[in-house]
């Protein structure tokens, strides 16, 4: 080959390498052909070295790290043989990157040292990789110093400047400076080619999460995924970075799925660096679950891999995860505390702000579990101090630490102060989330603060203050209302409606539901749900500002008693609010109440389906139900010494949420999620909008019921199959004064926002109710289990009741058990007759219950399970 030909080939190889780095999907496939062309020219050693490096860059972009390593090994041999020191320098640095990502830190360090000894070369690229090594072993401040020096070096190429700005942004975010990090990412984005721009978008999503801007983080990750697909980058690393956002949003099922998917991809391709990190994320997900011991194995395995890779900072993070899981499982021992304390020291040296807070908090909890008050207080104080400059969720951890420390020294006022401040911060954070689901889940971040404040107040405060605190920690989602979503899911909603229509028709025809159609429905639900997560909300007044004071509640009660239930350290109590004072009444062991409530629920379900049941089974269910009702009355109501005829407002807690309150007190009863939500509903009044009467498919009794009710409500809009589809019903419900739904309903524990009421052409979901932006002023739900919901940590519930109350419905009649459509006809007529005569919902339900035949099993269920909710 001529000298000119070799030069031309070299120029093409150099250009191709730059193109592959910028856009691997477009340029990468050309590398194989160029390598083959260079091989055919025996004298073209330098072009072949560069072409092999370009092909290795393409293989690395596809996570084919073994192939990339083999190509770079060949390139290094050729460069040494031809004494091409400059090219060897480049190859060694590239191979160090591959070795680093494979988790071979010692090999990466040897390549970097060898490249440095070669002398001339791109020193900034060498420094860049040294900073990457320091970052991955946990020496964040040292890595940041190198990055800042490279960024200020005028000799740095545009590509290097973009890489450094991106990497330094990640460091700044971990060091507690997210604003500086976002500025650096702006700079990186201006300089980056397509592939690096996709990585910068991913980094921005991660930094936004560290800044506490979680809805923006989700939107950014979705944008990054589009870019990753466009340039052909593998999604595993993107999914790994998304995990922190999902965990902060308490979307643990989604986080677990991503961790498993990313871990499998990294393991399959031999990317040990990120494979170990995915294993740690899996442990962190498990540590937050109801079975924290499931975190122990992946945390230990992750620690072993990090130790083999020479990454002490990551070993410390794995140890903190392991000890935190043991604390939650109640199995911590002195050796675990010692391990946590060592991990704290390692993380403090590395400078990871949020990790330091978490580590001190775990060490403090471990010391508390072992009755080591002094080290517990030291670690908790350090966690509080380290949290001051963190994001809102980091500051919340600091407030938990502060409240725990105050409790240790007997400072109840201090514990309440920390808890109150933390809950106000959480209220502001919750209002940045546009999704009701995410707002409900976010309340879980304050669950421990609520418990700590309650425990302190029960020791030292009057009952009225305890009642105010219980109101502060309950049903916060119902007191703030996000705006309806825009049109970004219009097509998905239409497609989902079409799929539901097909499924509804198949059910009417008695045909099986095709798996492909069910899969399509699930995919559409997932896209709609994710769009709701991305929806932002204009910050408004924190939830605490929407709370209503005791004096105003007393005015609205007009002499009626209000009873708020709560639990502390396994014991249930009630606060009875009367016209002049509040009284705390101890009630007994929480476990006993839960047993009776569960037994009653089981018995009612058996009695609701008596057809085909054996007489002995029905008799046993009847005895069980009556025994449970008697025990619940004795445990929850009798100690309160209420006037038997007085109307009562009940505020259940998680222990008593599914109790059928109308069956426990002789007078009218209404239940509400919190004192403030009840007061807001009570102040709203009955309203004067139109009446809407809806019957669902497959329920002949429901059609008769709605037709009978229409005589009581002249001019009502009556919607029965085949009319009364989802779109028409949701449109009619918005702004209705009174709505009656006699339909099948079902609760989706796996995806609660798609719990639904079945209508003529498909399902009206909680998500669609949320999109209404308005709701009927009063509603009667002759729907099975319509008063049930999916409870999430933080005293929030996702269900039909909460969805309607959140959108402005003032009073609801609903059931905590399945209902027979034939049995509800007479009951509904009596209930609506009372409503038409001016009764409130609680009084109307009370009146209708008196006409039910309780000697019939289904009548007994209806009489027991149907209650009033909201303002009554």
From TrEMBL:
SUPFAM superfamilies named in the record: TPR-like
UniProt cross-references to Gene3D superfamilies, sorted A to Z: Tetratricopeptide repeat domain (1.25.40.10)
Domain of life, source organism: Bacteria
Domain CHAT per the UniProt entry, residue ranges: 629-851
Name of the protein in its database record: CHAT domain-containing protein
Annotated source species: Pseudonocardia ailaonensis
